[in-house]
Amino acid sequence: MFLDYFALGLLVFVALILFYGIIVIHDIPYEIAKERDHPHQDAIHVAGWVSLFTLHAIWPFLWIWATLWRNERGWGFHKLEEEQHDLHHRLEKLIDQVDELKNEVSYLKGKQAQEKAAATQVQAEEK
Fold it and tell me: Which Pfam families does this one have (predicted)?
């Protein structure tokens, strides 16, 4: 008799934990959006409740939607383009510097070869 009531109590306890656990889990994207001051946090919150009725089928997309926004860089795409543009210009400068260094090395090798040839010619004339 006691075990029947204990089992019933345990069943109710587990059901309540699962029920509240699902509600807490569905709210994670909204909490992320709220923490990041997302401009669509209300929509994410409502979509989280809708995801309860779709058995959380859209929940991963809500998570992605909430994590894409950052207050300091927005969606991040514009800054990424700027960074790529800056990297491209830095790469062009480095290529120009490498070309200048190649030319300088070629010039110095030629100058060294001329000096060697002159030294060899002087030695040949001395003999």
Answer: DUF3302
